[in-house]
Each structure stands twice: as C-alpha cells, then as structure tokens.
Design a protein that fits this description.
The chain is of the alpha+beta class. The chain has helices at about 5-10, 15-20, 60-80, and strands at about 30-40, 45-50, 85-90. It is elongated.
Amino acid sequence: MAHTTDRLTCRTPVPVEIILGRQKKQPTTASFVLFDVLYEDGSRSSNRKVPGEMLDGLDGDDPARTFIMSQDQKIAEMSGQPRGPIKSLTRSAKQ
C-alpha cells in the first residue's frame, strides 16, 4: 500500500497577511497634551486633550487656548449652553 500524506499538513505555514495580500498597519503615536482650564465664572475643566503637534511651534501654549475655545464653541452650539471665557490655562500635572 502506498503511503499518502495530506497536502495541507506538509506545507510550511504562511502568514495570513501574505495570503490575503494585507500589510500590517504601523502603530500610530498620537500625542496629546492635557490642560486644566479655569473659566472666569470659577468653573474648572480638567484634562482637556490638545494634539501635541499644535504645540510644537514658537507660540507656546497659545494654540491650545484657541483649540479649546473652538471645542467649547462646538459644545455650546450642540448643548445650547455657552461656556464662559477662559481665565487661565495650565498644563495638567504628570500622571
């Protein structure tokens, strides 16, 4: 009797990415800087995320104020409750 082997068990395993023609996605490094916001009415908002690439320039943290004000405007439009003006903006303490 001739010895037969199963074709599937004799093959070298091939990664699924090669079979399906997909490449692995490179992990993205999304960097955010967290800010604590104090409003003129005394309310506080902690750990507001601002994209790190906005803060790479010579303007310091000024772009963060603009970004957060823009977020506040969008939230106010959706909720119907406007946010007061920002009194101070500080980077959150390291966690």
